[in-house]
Amino acid sequence: MAKRYWLVKSEPFKYSWDDLVRDQEEVWDGVRNHRAKNNLKAMQVGDQAFFYHSREGLEVVGICEVSVADILDPTDETGKWAAVKFKPVRKFDTPVTLKQIKAEPSLAEMELVKLSRLSVAEVRPNEWDKVIAMSEAG
């Protein structure tokens, strides 16, 4: 199966990129939205995700990778919600802000833009490549 790309959001005062780097691997849990849950369930080991700081910063700060897929959310007593584990891959030298993403016409259909409240979003390969190019151009 081909590698897929994602975007995961975290409020940096709760769990930041630096926390993931410190921990080296972390369970991505606590998601209580059905579309986000379906995205988590679709993830495979080796898929990569943009790590996005929400509320503070509003920017893509790095890339993480799925290290363990398709696990039950340990914070869910009902057993209905999904989780995965992520490990850090690399931090962007220059974060890509939501403002920059919204200003880029080729990213107008990105789930981050269209479904702004979604905490786990799919990223199309062309969107992935564009955001990486933007981080390298900064």
Write the topology of this structure.
Blueprint: E1 5-10, H1 17-23, E2 26-28, H2 34-42, E3 48-53, E4 59-72, E5 82-97, H3 98-103, H4 111-114, E6 120-123, H5 125-137
Parallel strand pairs: 1-3
Antiparallel strand pairs: 1-6, 2-5, 3-4, 4-5
Q: State the name of the first-level CATH class.
A: Alpha Beta
* H/E element order: EHEHEEEHHEH
The tally of helices reads: 5
- The shape, in one word, is globular
Task: Briefly note the CATH topology name.
Answer: ph1033 like fold
Question: What do you see in this structure?
Answer:
By secondary structure, the chain is of the alpha+beta class. It has a single domain, classed as ph1033 like domains (ph1033 like fold, Roll), CATH 3.10.590.10. The chain is 28% helix and 36% strand. It contains 5 helices and 6 strands; from the N terminus they run E-H-E-H-E-E-E-H-H-E-H. A 6-stranded mixed sheet has the order 2-5-4-3-1-6. Strand 3 and strand 4 form a beta hairpin. The longest helix has 13 residues. The model has no long low-confidence stretch (mean pLDDT 96).
How would you concisely characterize the structure shown here?
This protein has 138 residues and is of the alpha+beta class. 28% of the residues lie in helices and 36% in strands.
